[in-house]
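Annex B. Sample input.
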Amino acid sequence: MQGSFLRRIDKPLVILYVVFLILGWVCIYEASYVKTQTSIFDIHYRSGMQLLWIGVSVITALVILNTKPLVFYSWSYIIYIGVVILLVVTLFVAPNIKGSHSWLVIGSFSLQPAEFAKFSTALVLAYFYSLQSFSNISLSRKIFITVFVIALPMIIILLQKETGSALVFLAFLIMLYREGLSSFVILITFLAITLFIVTIRFSGNTEIFYTEHFGNLISISIILIVSAFIYDRYCQYNLKLKTLHILGIIAGAYVVSFLLNKFVIRFDMLYVALGLSALFIVFLLVMYIDALKKAYLLLVVFVVMFIGYSFSADIIFEKVLEPHQKIRIETLLGLKEDPQGAEWNTNQSKIAISSGRMFGKGFLKGTQTKLKFVPEQDTDFVFCTISEEWGFAGSVVVILLFFAFIYRIVYLSERQSSVFSRVYGYCVVGIFGFHFIVNIGMVLGIMPVIGIPLPFFSYGGSSLLAFTILLFIFIKLDMNSKVNV
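Annex B, continued. Sample output.
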């Protein structure tokens, strides 16, 4: 029986987990080290506390490996409901810690339920998608259930002022795409992000293009270009008008307008973009009446919706986002300089990373981290400690290990015989991938600082335990991949 257990468990994934635990523990010791600390095992310091959480996590992993997979299937919605209730309770009873109400504090013990909402949501999504009845229900109802399951904990976490943890739930798009989600939905998501950034980054007046709303002008132009390609892909109905013709008309209108502005009469070129949009919409409506093809009408909705969204981006930015979130975005986009505030973390992180050079300064010899120039250097910014003391070579090794880790989960997910295991596996891929990419991105200064940990490396018992549960449920499901749950 023991031999069978060892044969069925995926050794590469377990080995990578153990390697991450060891490297993460050492990194936390390096990042939080003070001269009064005499041992890495001292529980009065963060490295010692992390070791205790490692012990708890390993015991939890062993319990999961000895649990029947049917338990995760049968109890998935109960676990999900329990975590949602815990999130609601946390919202009302949690103290204010750095502006958020997301930690349950009992004496010296603290827990962040938002971390456990990730694997509970993954479980319930896997449960629904594995049901035969769920596969047979209408597409609209399936979409509603999926959005509700993901959005419910996401909204509660947003109310707790934990934007970073809430954004992680967007990672479930990877699973949805694998399960047949239209690439059009992915396009809409990325287009919404792009338009928001462009509108904010280029808002204001520009004399070169003769408009007081340059961001909106660029956004509408992008919408028209994307719409032209969508038209070519889904809407053509025995027409000679093709995408290149539409793009040519747009370009020609802009050139003529620019020359008129330059030599004849001054006017806001935003009106040209709006006029082109109106003509395109009228054209689509005429074609819908002629062909009665729903794609034309849907494209009209697409154009109108995103033009409205581009004009509301400024309102969203000013009225919805918190002040600290706005300043982080503004500094990232180069709209403002705040070297002593929002830019401090990333600037100090970049200095620490660059100072490590090829092979690093050596164990406990990082000056930026030892002198505590980098805030949160043992939590969200732990990667800068790796780069400073282990250098470029050490950083690359860690990144390659994460790539191998995520690739292995993708490989195992694809070979699952049950829908439940496959869906859950891709949820795991999305969550780990999102954490890895965004955390490294914000440390390097190419993404906004949204405060999410690097899995297994950042200090924190809640995140370590939640990541362990997330991973080992999948490992257990993989061990029983030939058993239909």
